[in-house]
Amino acid sequence: MSTAKGRSGEAHAAAFLQRRGFTILEHNVRLGRGELDLIARRDDLLLFVEVKFHRQRESSLLAVHPEKCARLRSAAEAWLAHHPEYANLQCRFDLMIVTPRVGLPAWIPPGIEQMEDIIR
Predict the structure, then answer these.
(1) Is 90 strand, coil or helix?
(2) Model confidence pTM above 0.85
């Protein structure tokens, strides 16, 4: 996937979260052994969001394998170490699957599915 498509998927995911009352704290943070696509907050909940922009939902699910989850956890721990002001919040890892609408006009937004609590 191209960087432009990835950034587009992340922008759609960020807008989706903002419509649900979340504040986007950061985009594309590289820390530890991984990268966090989005970090968002609403009240006492801090989200670390992995965004996948694939034509097929199954491809997105397969891309979040145990090694990827370990890298996400490492990056989140490093981020929290740099931002102790968020240490008392409940943390959750979510997967946002962004699927383009094939064969429809470009102005129709892609489908977005939020899978909550993908890492325990």
Answers:
(1) strand
(2) yes
Show the domains of the chain with their CATH numbers: 3-115 (3.40.1350.10)
Q: Is the pLDDT of residue 4 over 70?
A: no
Beta bridge partners of 30: 35
| Residue 50 structure tokens | 């992995």
Tokens of 109: 């937004």
Question: How far apart, in whole angstroms, are the C-alpha atoms of residue 62 and residue 66?
Answer: 10
Handedness of CA 77, 82, 85, 86 (dihedral sign): negative
- pLDDT tens digit sequence for 24-41: 999 999 987 889 999 999
Spell 15-31 as b/e; 16+ CB within 10 A means b: ebbeeeebebbebebeb
